[in-house]
Amino acid sequence: MSSHAAALCLKCRGARNLCGKPFCPLLSYWKALREIELPEATELHGPSPPTVFVGRHGYPKVSFSLGVLVTGGEASLLENQEKWLGKPLSEILRMRLAVVRGETKVDIRHADIPEELRLASISKDPVDIEMALARKPSFRVLLDVFSPPLGPAGPAQKIRVSGEPRLTRPVEKMYYSLDVKASDAVMYLYESGIPVSHIQRMLSTGALGYASQRKLVPTRWSITAVDSTISQRLIEKIKDFEPFTEFLFFQWKHEDNNFIGIIVPRGWSYEWIEAWFPHTMWNPSSRIEVEGDYEGYKGRTTYASLGGCYYAARLAAAEYMLREKRQGTAILIREIYEGFFSPIGVWFVRENIRQLFRTKPEKYSSLGEVLERLGKATRLPLQVWLEKSRLLRNLLRQESILNYFSTHARGG
Fold first, then answer.
1. Domains in the chain and their CATH numbers?
2. Which of 7, 20, 67, 210 would be 101's cystine partner, CB 3.0–4.6 Å?
3. What is the pTM of this model?
4. Rg of the chain over CA atoms, in angstroms?
5. Residue 392, CA distances (Å) to 249, 355, 383, 396 in order
6. Cis preceding linkage at 47, omega within 30
7. Residue 188 and residue 176: Cα distance in Å, rounded?
């Protein structure tokens, strides 16, 4: 954070709009909390979007919760992450915090939730739920870097489905196919047009895979597993394509984030780099923190250090190459600026990178031109990216070797 920006925040403290934004980004979360009226009753009835969450603490005995919308709003939008990008983060927070969850403890090894709850969890449309809580819900708000925000909750004494779950044909087919491997089911659903967010919910609720292996999967793990599985299958397909013929440069800005995409006309490889500016959610220090991870043509054998965002962005990059029927080296960069303070979920990266690749690319004939463009597109200087990017350094080294042999060949 620049000293100027820090000084503005200190002078303003959310009251004077000195940054020029219509509301203070740092206070939008608390503003959303204030606007939510918690129900006094413990007997709740309303549509579940459906909102489902499987925790990971205490594994294998974890919390399972199903949410009910009790304050009005468009229930069908609350789990449709693929349509959230056009909405301000404050609105997404507000609508997510309006869902009250009834929690119960379950053992994931037995996937011991009633079938009616599992069917409600994977329904295409909202389903009416009746819920009795042991006490009125409280704001034990869950903010997680992987999953979307979750609002108030209370221990559930009873959860009953009073509506009729609606399953799309592909979802119904995979739910009742007890002899299909989970990863194959994930890919079948994806190729059938089922949204990634819906597939993640199915995996989390133990609705996919061999009958003997079905179990609840913590939401955090299911999100990354689906992104990773689908992107890996797509990568194997795009490796059969010819490389791109030009260098492509993409840029997309959204909610205090600057996303850059570079496609190099080479074989598949991939890199994801994040630069967190000071006083953002994951960087309370006064220094800019930059981290990245990558994979070569053969992929990786270990879990990426940057976790879910790495795989969510990889999925979007692979989708783009599949559409173009080309393969290439994808270098994705994200700068997170002052004002971005809330962990909103991995969907934010996936949908922004998808949008990035929907924009029209700038085309260049050399790596040097792309690097010059990169230096002008980010607040951090080019040298930082060259120091942090393994793939950019490799490309520069390869280009130097090619130029060396080309020069000596002409001289011979």
1. 1-34 (no CATH), 36-161 (2.40.50), 169-236 (no CATH), 247-408 (no CATH)
2. 67
3. 0.87
4. 23
5. 14, 23, 11, 6
6. no
7. 14
